[in-house]
Design brief:
The complex is a heterodimer. Chain A is mainly alpha-helical. Chain A contains 20 helices and twelve strands. In chain A, about 50% of the residues lie in helices and about 10% in strands. Helix content of chain B is about 55%, strand content about 10%.
Chain lengths: ~425, ~425
C-alpha cells in the first residue's frame, strides 16, 4: 500500500520539475503538505538548528526562506513537530525538532490534510494517484477510485494529474481509454490491453490486491500469496502486470515481481530502510532470471559481497542496478568487464541474505517444543489469588482485563 | 530517605556536613551526586536496608558510559577504625558494582594509605577536600539533593503524603529514589511503566506528583544514557528488540518465556476445544468464545517504544550535551521546581543552554508517554526556566559570586 505521506511527498517533489501552471495553483495545498513532510524528514535527526541552517535545508528542499518562515514552520509548530525560538521582532533564532518516529509521521497525514482544509479535488487526486500507480485502469475505474469526493472533483483531479504527467491517458480502439502512472507502467498498447482485459473480466480488485502484496514483498514465492487465488495470479501474469520467474531449474519454485521494484511512482527514492532490504532481495532474485546478465546463485553472490565487500566483474552490473545505487545500498566501481558491486550497507545485505536463505521455508514462531521449559529459570508463577480469578469462574470483561494486566506485570517482573 | 536525612542533617552535625561537602564537590566535578542513599538487599520487610551510602555519584563520560562512585565519609580522628572502614568499603564497592570507592577521613595514616592502595581504593583527608573545594567556590553551598532547603522540604512532605497514598507501592518509590541509580535500563523502564499503572489508580497530590515525576525523569535519563552507550555495540533495531523484550517479558536476553506462552496457548486452545466437543456431543449448541492468546497479550510492545529509541539515538548523537543532562535535570527538577534559586548561579550556566533544553524537553515528552499525563504535568516542559544562558568566557571559579546580572544568550542576541 502506498501511504498518503509518500504520495504527498512524491507529488510535491514531482511538481518542482514543472514550470508553474494553473495546476500548481489548483493542487497547491497538496504541494504545501509535501513541503511540510519534506522538512519534517530532513529535520528529523537535527535536534536544535540555527535559523541559517534551517534556511539552507529549506533552500536545498526547494522551499524559499519566505515560504518556510511564514507557512511551513508555523504549520509544523501547530503539529508540535518543531518549536521555533524567535526574537521579539519575530525573526527566527533557532528551531528545535521534535519530529515523531516514522510510523507516527506516516499516520499524521489525516491531521495535516484536515488542518490545511484540503479540497475534494485534492483528496480525489491522492486517491487517483494511488490507484493508477498500483495498476493500469480503465478511465471510468480510475474516476471511480476518486468518486468518494464527488464525481466532478474526480474528473477535475484526473485532468490535473494528466497535465503534470503523473497519469497518462491512452485511448483504445473501441473508444474507451486506459489511465496509468507512466513512471511505473511502460508501453502504451500493452497497458491499454491489460487495463481493458482486467476491467472486462471484472477482477480489478483481485489483481490490485495481488499487485499490492507483491509490491510489499517482491520476489514472494507464488504459493505464499494470500491475497487472491491461483487463477488470478495466472491472469495477472498473462496480462503482463506481474512477472513470474522460475529461479533454479531443479526446483519448481515460482517467484513474483511487479515493476514497482525498479521504479518509483515519482522517480524518487522513498528512503525507507526496510525497503532497501526488500529491494536487494528482489534485485538478486530478479537478476537470476530476468536481468540480461543471469545470476546463478543469488545467495552465493550476496555472501561474497558481504565477505569481500565487492563482487561481480561483469559489464552488465553497471547498467542493471541503478535503483540499488540510488538507495545507497551498493555502488558500482570500475566499468566495462571489470565493473563490480561494492557494498555500502552491510546490514542490509546480511538481512537480505537471511531472507534469501530462508526463502520458501515457512518462518515458524520461535521454539515450539517442550524441551525448553527445563531451561527457564526466571518464570514466576502467577500469584495464587490472581490465578484463582482465572480458574474459578467465567471471566467477565473487568476480570479478564485485570487478569491480563496481572499477567503482563508478572512476566515483566514489575512486582513492586 | 528524607526522614533519615532530616534527622541527621540537624545543625551542627559534623558527619552530615562532611557528606554535604563531599557531595557538592562531586557535583562540581561533573557527577550526579546524592547523599545518604539507602542500599537495599533482598530481605524481609524492615531488614532490607543494609546501610546508607554516604555519597553516591554517577559519572557519565564522553562516550556516555556511566560509572558509579561510592564515597564513605567518617569524622573520627586518628587511626581508630581506619583499616576496618577500608575493608568494609572494599566489600561495599563489590556489592554495588561501583568502579570507584573513596574513603574520606579527617586524617590519613601511612598504614591506611597502604591498605587503600592494596585494595585499589581511594582515600582522601579533609585537608585535600578543602583544597579541592577552593577551586569550586562559585558552586552554591546547598542545592537540589545536596541539602537544598526546598528539595528537602518537598521530599519530606512527599514522605508524609505517601503514607496516605496506598495505591503507590513503597517499593516503587524506593526504587525511583535510590535503586534506579544502581540499576540497569530494563529495571528502570519497568519501574516507569509501574508508576504509570500506579498513577492510574488515583489522584496524586503535590508535591508527591512533582517529586515522583522528577525522580522518574532522572530514572528515564539514566536508562536512556545507558542504552545510548549500548548503541556502540548493537544497532538501534536490536536495541529496540531488547527494550521491547525487557518491558514485556522482563529480561532483554530471554526469549524462552515466549515459547512457554505459545505452549500455554496451545494447551488452553486444546482444552477449550475439548470442552466444546463434549458439549456438542451432549447435544448442546456450540458457543463461540474468542480465547485471548497469552503470547499476544504479553508481547504487545508499548506505544512509546519508538519514541524512546529516538531519544536514545538523539542522546548518542550529542554526547557532549547528553553527559551533563542528568545534572541539568537534577537542578531543574529538584532545585528550580522545588522553589530554590541555586540553579541560577553562574556555576551552573554551562548546564542551561538551548541544547540542554532541547534534550531535556525531548526526554520530558517521552516521560509523558511512559508515565502518563498526571505525573508529566507536574514537571511540565520547563518553559519557565531560562535556558539561554552561556558559560562566562573567563569564569571566576574560586571566588564566591556576588549578586549578578546573568549574562545570557537572549540578551546578547536581542541587543544586536
Amino acid at each position: 500500500m502506498i501511504s498518503d505521506a509518500q504520495l504527498i511527498l512524491g507529488f510535491s517533489r514531482h511538481l518542482t520539475a514543472y514550470s508553474v501552471s494553473p495546476v500548481h495553483a489548483e493542487l497547491e495545498t497538496l504541494r504545501f503538505a509535501g513541503q511540510v513532510y519534506e522538512m519534517a524528514w530532513r529535520l528529523r535527526n537535527a535536534q536544535v538548528s540555527s535559523a541559517e541552517r534551517v534556511r539552507a535545508i529549506g533552500i536545498d528542499a526547494k522551499i524559499g526562506p519566505l515560504d518556510l518562515d511564514r507557512y511551513v514552520l508555523p504549520t509544523m509548530e501547530q503539529l508540535r513537530w518543531v518549536q521555533c525560538d524567535r526574537r521579539p521582532d519575530r525573526t527566527l533564532v533557532s528551531v528545535s525538532a521534535y519530529v515523531p518516529p516514522n510510523t507516527e509521521l506516516l499516520a499524521a497525514t489525516d491531521q495535516l490534510l484536515g488542518m490545511l482544509l484540503v479540497t475534494p479535488v485534492q483528496r480525489a487526486a491522492l486517491e487517483i494517484m494511488r490507484a493508477t500507480s498500483i495498476q493500469p485502469l480503465e478511465r471510468q475505474a480510475a474516476l471511480q477510485a476518486g468518486s468518494g469526493h464527488g464525481d466532478e472533483a474526480a474528473e477535475r483531479a484526473l485532468s490535473c494529474l494528466i497535465t503534470v504527467n503523473l497519469v497518462r491517458e491512452v485511448p483504445s480502439e473501441d473508444g474507451r481509454a486506459a489511465v496509468f502512472n507512466p513512471n511505473i507502467w511502460i508501453g502504451d498498447s500493452e497497458m491499454v490491453t491489460a487495463a481493458l482485459r482486467t476491467e472486462d473480466a471484472r477482477v480489478q480488485r483481485e489483481v490490485g490486491a495481488l499487485i499490492e502484496e507483491i509490491m510489499a514483498s517482491p520476489g514472494i514465492p507464488e504459493e505464499h500469496v494470500t491475497s487472491t487465488e491461483q487463477r488470478w495470479i495466472d491472469f495477472a501474469v498473462s496480462a503482463g502486470l506481474v512477472e513470474r520467474s522460475q529461479v533454479v531449474a531443479a526446483s519448481d519454485k515460482k517467484f513474483l515481481f511487479t515493476p514497482h521494484l525498479h521504479r518509483d511512482p515519482f522517480g524518487t527514492d522513498p528512503r525507507d530502510p526496510s525497503g532497501h532490504i526488500r529491494q536487494l532481495v528482489g534485485s538478486m532474485i530478479y537478476a537470476s532470471t530476468f536481468a540480461s546478465w543471469k545470476l546463478n546463485s543469488p545467495g552465493a553472490f550476496l555472501y561474497v559481497l558481504i565477505r569481500d565487500g565487492e563482487a561481480g566483474q561483469h559489464e552488465r552490473i553497471a547498467q542493471d542496478y541503478a535503483m540499488l545505487e540510488t538507495a545507497g545500498t551498493i555502488e558500482v566501481v570500475g566499468d566495462g568487464p571489470a565493473a563490480r558491486m561494492r557494498l555500502l550497507q552491510a546490514d542490509v545485505a546480511e538481512q537480505a541474505l537471511k531472507i534469501i536463505d530462508s526463502r520458501g521455508t515457512t518462518t515458524g514462531v520461535a521454539n515450539t517444543t517442550f524441551a525448553g521449559i527445563g531451561e527457564q529459570r526466571s518464570y514466576n508463577h502467577l500469584e495464587r489469588e490472581r490465578a484463582q480469578v482465572a480458574s474459578a469462574v467465567a471471566l467477565d470483561d473487568a476480570d479478564s482485563r485485570r487478569f491480563m494486566s496481572a499477567l503482563r506485570d508478572t512476566t515483566a517482573r514489575r512486582n513492586f | 530517605m528524607a526522614d533519615a536525612q532530616s534527622n541527621r542533617a540537624i545543625a551542627g552535625n559534623p558527619g552530615a556536613d562532611l557528606e554535604r561537602r563531599v557531595g557538592r564537590l562531586e557535583f562540581a566535578e561533573g557527577a550526579l551526586a546524592r547523599l545518604r542513599v539507602p542500599l537495599r538487599v533482598a530481605a524481609e520487610r524492615g531488614r532490607d536496608i543494609l546501610t546508607d551510602l554516604d555519597v553516591l555519584a554517577v559519572d557519565i563520560d564522553g562516550r556516555l558510559r556511566a560509572s558509579l562512585s561510592v564515597l564513605e565519609c567518617k569524622t573520627t580522628k586518628g587511626q581508630s577504625g581506619e583499616p576496618d572502614r577500608l575493608l568494609w568499603l572494599s566489600g561495599l564497592q563489590r556489592l554495588t558494582g561501583a568502579r570507584r570507592a573513596v574513603l574520606v577521613r579527617q586524617t590519613i595514616t601511612r598504614r591506611g594509605r597502604a591498605i587503600a592502595q592494596a585494595l585499589d581504593l581511594q582515600i582522601m583527608d579533609v585537608q585535600t577536600l578543602a583544597a579541592r573545594e577552593t577551586s569550586h567556590a562559585w558552586v552554591p553551598e546547598r542545592f537540589a539533593h545536596i541539602d537544598g532547603a526546598g528539595c528537602e522540604q518537598a521530599e519530606r512532605r512527599t514522605d508524609t503524603q505517601l503514607k496516605g497514598l496506598h495505591h503507590i507501592p513503597a517499593g516503587l518509590v524506593a526504587f525511583l529514589r535510590a535503586d534506579s541509580l544502581l540499576a540497569d535500563s530494563p529495571e528502570c523502564l519497568n519501574a516507569l511503566v509501574a508508576l504509570n499503572s500506579a498513577g492510574g489508580q488515583g489522584f496524586v497530590p503535590k508535591p508527591t506528583a512533582l517529586i515522583l515525576a522528577s525522580h522518574a525523569l532522572i530514572t528515564l535519563l539514566l536508562a536512556a544514557i545507558r542504552d545510548a552507550s549500548r548503541l556502540d555495540v548493537v544497532p538501534a533495531a536490536d536495541l529496540r528488540e531488547r527494550v521491547s523484550r525487557s518491558v514485556t517479558v522482563g529480561d532483554p536476553d530471554n526469549s524462552q518465556i515466549l515459547a512457554i506462552l505459545s505452549q500455554a496457548d496451545e494447551l488452553v486452545q486444546h482444552q477449550v476445544q475439548r470442552i466444546h466437543d463434549s458439549y456438542t456431543s451432549a447435544g448442546a449448541a456450540r458457543q463461540d468464545i474468542a480465547v485471548t492468546s497469552l503470547r499476544a497479550v504479553v508481547t504487545e510492545p508499548p506505544a512509546w517504544l519508538d519514541r524512546y529509541i529516538d531519544l536514545v539515538t538523539k542522546l548518542r548523537a550529542n554526547p557532549a550535551i547528553a553527559r551533563d543532562l542528568v545534572q541539568t535535570a537534577e537542578l531543574a527538577c529538584f532545585d528550580a521546581r522545588c522553589g530554590d534559586t541555586a540553579y541560577a548561579e553562574a556555576a551552573f550556566d554551562h548546564l542551561f543552554t538551548p541544547e540542554h533544553r532541547y534534550l531535556l524537553v525531548t526526554a520530558a515528552k517521552v516521560l509523558r508517554d511512559i508515565v502518563g499525563d498526571q505525573f508529566a504535568d507536574a514537571i511540565g516542559e520547563f518553559d519557565d526556566l531560562n535556558f539561554r544562558r552561556a558559560a562566562p568566557a573567563v569564569p571566576d571559579r574560586s571566588a564566591l559570586q556576588p549578586d549578578r546580572v546573568t549574562p545570557t544568550l537572549t540578551q546578547e542576541t536581542r541587543s544586536t
